[in-house]
Known about the structure:
By secondary structure, this protein is an alpha/beta fold. A nine-stranded mixed beta sheet has the order 5-8-9-2-1-10-11-15-16. A six-stranded parallel beta sheet has the order 19-18-17-20-21-22, sandwiched between helices. It has a three-stranded antiparallel beta sheet with strand order 12-14-13. Strand 13 and strand 14 form a beta hairpin.
Amino acid sequence: MKKPAGSDTRHSWDPSGPTPSALLDRVEREGGTSPRDASPSIWMRSVAHACRAELARRMNETLREDRARGAKRVHYLSMEFLMGRALANALSALGMTETFAASARANGVDANEVLERESDAALGNGGLGRLAACFLDSLATLGIPSFGYGLRYRFGLFAQRIQDGRQVEEPDDWLRNGNPWELERPEIRYQVALGGRVVSEGTGRRWLPAETLHADAFDFVVPGHSTRRVAVLRQWQPAPRPIDLQAFSRGDQVAAGLPRLAAESIGWVLYPDDSTPMGRELRLKQEYFLVSASLQDVLARHLQEHGHFDNLGETVAIHLNDTHPALAAPELVRLLLDEHYMNWDRALGLVHRVMSYTNHTLMPEALEMWPVRMFEHWLPRHLEIIYEMNQRFLDQVRMRLPGDDALVRRVSLIDERGERRIKMAALSIVASHKVNGVSQLHSDLMVRTIFADYARIFPDRFCNVTNGVTPRRWVAQANPALASLLDARLGGPQWRTALEKLAGLKPLAGDAGLRRDILAAKRANKERLAGLVRRELGLVIDPASLFDVQVKRLHEYKRQLLNVLQVIARYQAIVANPNAQWIARTVVFAGKAASAYVAAKDIIRLIHDVARIVNSDRLVRDRLKVVFLPNYGVTLAEMIMPAADLSEQLSTAGTEASGTGNMKFALNGALTIGTWDGANIEMAQAVGREHFFIFGLNAEQVTELRSQGYDPRRYYGENPRLKRAVDAVAHGGFSPGEPDRYRGLVDSLLSRDAYLVFADFASYLDAQAQADRLFGKPGDWAHKAILNIAAMGHFSADRTIREYARDVWNIKV
């Protein structure tokens, strides 16, 4: 009988990183100077290389063990892996933290300054990418054989700069000094074809592409904790093409470099602006480049280890993180049909057995669809395969549910309304054996709304796996003050890999000493963030104030605008009654808006305009401050989340699939003000709804209100505080030099208010008032904070991955 995945090494942790002398030798060798004279940057690279060498050894051990056992392996395909900095995590996992700190200290080097020299890996944007990064950490820690597959973006999404209150996008040049973590794999290269035509050849079809790219592999090793096991993130980069030497010799240097430019641009930027035809084509090429290289790699490894495909379904799991990798389905069919000469029935059967898909959205407009004409031009063979898959699927539907032609039209993989388009979510559902949502509400709504027809056809295909986060990064690394406190109160560091042990705090919530310690740890983190705000923005904020935080991607459904309106209402109330006993607040925003998302960028500008007026009003003084921290990423989040008192989770009920920021905040002792949406629900149920500040309509009430005909002007007219706040924005109260600056935002709210900002405003203000009252009683606030931390054991990514392994991938852990 096979042993469970990772059982050979899971409990044989033996940190064997470099000794202090070996570490210092490496610093001297790589820096060309003594460790005492070496710069923090040299120290960072040298220590990273030392960690990488040990991680490479562990990777080889892991891969050898998996091959010897014939283990089933998970292949996690995602357009994003938001890894953040790697050095502190690697040092911790390898048991080298103290060795590094002592070596640095002995040579007069500030260890923290060394850690600060590392750039964030710009391989993702928001929750989707950070979730994927957490999953790799848990896959390694649980010993599950796994590869992540992504793209090696040269310039990431973008670096956000704020100029006159407006977002300005600049290239995120995170690789300018190289990447000390990656292992280049020049021996691993695959061809990726594009364009051309398809011809008949014997009884089959042959693709004659117009151009061929080459995908080069770069590996990033993700360490497990309390184990020697690792996971591997394999990233693909388009290989540079040679220049056109004849054009160069003619003196046309620009033309000579165009083929090289066309290839390299595929790996430049995450989510290129899709508001232009060229941008949309580039996105499609990126998605195909990822899946083609990845699946070729999966099949090549499988053949090397097993020599045949008979056991592919028992040894390979391919997971699609959202629809971006949905082309994996027709690409795997193509490889099995055209390259490995299988018949259709066997190929489709294997695809179905190995493939699974996570959906991350309930909004129909967010589900990817690609015009058929783009496939005709760039992926003609895949279009043929999708047509055949669709025909077989629709024949199956007609057989199961005869006479329902309307159903057949709705579930077809091709949307025939207007320009014909391929529905990538539908393609993923039909190809997969399991489809999951990421919170219980999301999964329930998924099968009742956007995928109701598919759930009727495949009732056993859908399931829920609620998201989770890794406590190793989001508490142990990001919040050492709290981590030390948890170690002391819970009898050691075991909670890092068994987060359910946090429940041991619940009986201690009434302990006055623990409450004081929790408040002291929070105050230290708030002082650290206040220092950052002063250095970066020149703004002084009071660590004793309530730190009210909303940090996430800018989107109308996440309702940063609702938060801004409550800030304006609070400001107006303070100005009207400055002598009242106000609870001092610092409201912190951070997040990027997509470069083509005009409304989201307007909201960022409004936040800055409000901050300028509020922060300079002497009547308000320190009772209200507004902060926007630019260029939000993992490292900034690690600074903000431990400092938050109040976590803003404001999505319109029924729109947020899950959220993971909500979990990170609660783990770090923040209380949540939020709607009954996504994972907020399960979190509130775990801790007790009375320990959350829940407000607003629930999903059923949202649906009912919309069905009755929602009139935002009624709420505007009936609520004086709402009207005053909106009017101040509409009439230039925060943009006096340009009174109509926000006319578009206001008109949209008054005429449509697509995300029910006005409908939830009064309830939101009531919840904010409750938060004020509780914050005025520090002991009671700390009591609720402790209960929140204690209830977060369920929201570990380790639990999430165990459920995927059991319910989706069929892997024993």
